[in-house]
Amino acid sequence: MSNKGFVSLVGAGPGDVDLMTVKAVRLLQQADVVVYDRLVSADILDLIPSGVSRISVGKEVGKHCVPQHKINETIVNLARSGRRVVRLKGGDPYMFGRGGEEALTLIKHQIAFEIVPGITAASGCSAYSGIPLTHRGMSRRVQFITGHFNDDEPLNLNWKSIADPDSTLVIYMGMANIDMITGKLIEAGLDAGTPAAAIENGTKDQQRRVLTTLGKLALEAHAEKLQAPVIFVIGQVVSLANQLDWFVTEEATGLSFTENEKTSYG
After folding, report:
1. Cα 114 to Cα 92: distance, rounded to the nearest angstrom
2. How far, in whole angstroms, is CA 236 from its chain's centroid?
3. Pick from 86, 27, 83, 90: which is nearest to 58 by CA?
4. Helix ranges, 39-195 (H)
5. Neighbours of 65 (CB within 10 A)
6. How would you classify residue 60: left for phi > 0, otherwise alpha for psi between -120 and 50, otherwise beta?
7. I need a labelling partner for 257 at 20 to 30 A (CA). Which of 78, 176, 208, 236 fits?
8. CA nearest 40: which of 55, 62, 61, 51?
């Protein structure tokens, strides 16, 4: 590896600044330049010392502000100039964060790097919504899937395998396709009455959650006008959300189970 420059691919977590790792905060303090994504919260960006260069490469579904190959080039060029680069990514770099692609680019160009894991949205947002990803007697496994492919490619997934009533299903980046996703899951055999949640801005003060069923998930997510970032959790564990709820925000008030749904979930 070249001795010039160094890149830290750092997970910023799901949004709450207090969920960042000690190492992530330390690297921000030591960085020469920070290259960050759209989902990195303002509170986290405030940790960057004044005078440190900041480069936004945020991307949105259907609107890529900076193409991935340009992000790769930016990171390589900054490192080649001898700088300590922090590539700050929402959640975890290797969980739907394209961190693997960026790491392979750095290897190709013989640039030294490290990976600093972050709390991924699945665990962070579910915990802040009162939903354990696993629970004895309810969930034997957890599945993470993407609800959106690059360049609007068809979402071709093994729906039969995914539609497992004994698992917890977490869908990243699925707001745009939630109607199709819920339809495919029901078509593949997953009961429409399966508890389901949509979580917007998880772990942040602006967090909102909609607790419902698989059959009503798309309709209620649209009715509440949820906007990305939204993560979906589907499975029996969602039925524990009201009992285990501890993170209540003003914005979340009123977005919960209906009385009928509470009764049906026991």
Report:
1. 13
2. 21
3. 90
4. 42-45, 68-80, 99-108, 121-127, 159-162, 178-187
5. 13
6. beta
7. 176
8. 55
Reported as half-sphere exposure (CB side, CA atoms, 13 A), residue 37 has a value of 27
pLDDT of 266 strictly over 60: no
Model pLDDT for residues 67-110, shown as the tens digit of each residue: 999 999 999 999 999 999 999 999 999 999 999 999 999 999 99
**Delimiting residues of CATH 3.30.950.10 domain(s) in the chain:** 121-264
CATH of the structural domain 2-116, one choice from 3.40.1010.10, 3.90.1170.30, 2.40.10.10, 3.40.50.12160? 3.40.1010.10
Average pLDDT over residues 178-192: 97
215 sits in which H/E element: helix 214-223
- 229 phi and psi, to 5 degrees? -85, 130
225 three-class SS:
coil
Residue intervals of the chain classified under CATH 3.40.1010.10 are 2-116
* 34 secondary structure, DSSP code: E
Question: Residue 1 pLDDT > 70, yes or no?
Answer: no
Which residues partner with 11 through β-bridges?
89
What amino acid positions are annotated as catalytic residues?
37, 59
Mean pLDDT value of segment 249-259 = 47
